[in-house]
Design brief:
alpha/beta; 42% helix; three-stranded mixed beta sheet
Length: 322
């Protein structure tokens, strides 16, 4: 539902360019989508959610919202629930009561930043206190709470982004999404970028920062359901994508293992090491195109990789080989 319900356009936002579409779904579209999804998924539908994304769902025309939710509720038997995304200042008790009545189970807030100066510069139209209030209200109604943050926004920096993550953690969301800012054509941010007012993070800077954010959220057992924008031809065509990568999360996870390896080995004199990880984390340890592995070899390390599948995803133990 690209840009529907949004009261204005934020500095970074061009949903049509990001998604490659401007069409707004009808109730019949919802029914047909769910019919096809059930046919494709079969029993797996019980692990899938119906989701309305791209705009501010609770700020759209109320009759239109009810029509979409009615279609989802009537045709959504067998799915695990209904997830919506919206703005923090489009949440109140009345709309939450309505969402509850129609079977919505999860609400994600496009919070983006917890810094009021950053929110103002990017024309968000709400404050950090609006985010705190909305989170508290959503949780009081029993919804699953998701928070979406954007790193590297106009006026932000590493310190502000890390503080945003820390405050997200204090709000106890069930899920988070992390979106590094990509400059899209047709936005205010494009003007700031072209005139030099705004300098985006490099890909390397984004990877370094988001690796740390992943560590923070994982340490607190907060589920990360997305890192980086989904790929689309329209995104590549309409964005200045020097800091975009289609496998961005993989780069961040590899960076986590790289940093952890260096930290754990800095006091070891031996270069011949046993490295124990969960088997599913092998590609993360090696890095994309085996970048980490080659780097470790160039440092002189000889690694004996061992597996312990009781280890957490990012857990690693290093000892001297005998």
């Amino acid at each position: 539902m690209p840009h529907n319900g949004c009261p204005h356009q934020c500095s970074f936002c061009n949903q049509k360019s990001i998604t490659g579409q401007a069409y707004q779904p009808t109730a019949d579209d919802v029914r047909e989508t769910l019919r096809r999804a059930k046919a494709d998924l079969g029993e797996r539908a019980q692990n899938a959610e119906i989701a309305f994304f791209g705009g501010s769902f609770t700020a759209i025309d109320r009759d239109y919202m009810k029509a979409l939710l009615t279609a989802a509720k009537e045709s959504g038997g067998g799915f695990s629930g209904i997830r919506i995304s919206t703005r923090p200042d489009a949440i109140d008790s009345d709309v939450l009561t309505l969402l509850k009545d129609y079977g919505v189970t999860a609400i994600e807030l496009g919070a983006q930043s917890m810094d009021d100066g950053v929110l103002t510069l990017n024309e968000r139209g709400h404050s950090a206190e609006d985010i705190r209030r909305a989170c508290k209200l959503i949780k009081s109604f029993g919804f699953s709470l998701g928070l979406q943050m954007m790193t590297g926004l106009y006026g932000s920096d590493f310190e502000k982004d890390l503080r945003t993550a820390d405050e997200f953690i204090s709000l106890s969301p069930d899920t988070v999404r992390i979106y590094p800012t990509v400059v899209m054509k047709g936005t205010a941010l494009e003007r700031y970028y072209l005139d030099g007012t705004y300098k985006p993070y490099t890909l390397e800077e984004s990877v370094e920062l988001c690796a740390e954010l992943i560590r923070k959220f994982e340490d607190k057992k907060i589920k990360i359901i997305r890192v980086g924008l989904h790929y689309s031809d329209s995104l590549i065509k309409n964005g200045y994508c020097q800091n975009y990568h289609p496998a961005f999360k993989e780069l961040c996870e590899s960076k986590l293992f790289y940093n952890s390896f260096l930290e754990k080995t800095k006091l070891l004199e031996s270069k011949k090491l046993d490295v124990t990880i969960n088997q599913k984390s092998l590609s993360k340890l090696y890095g994309q195109k085996k970048y980490n592995l080659h780097a470790f070899e160039e440092m002189g390390y000889i690694l004996n990789i061992l597996f312990d599948n009781t280890f957490e995803k990012y857990e690693m133990r290093i000892g001297v080989s005998v």
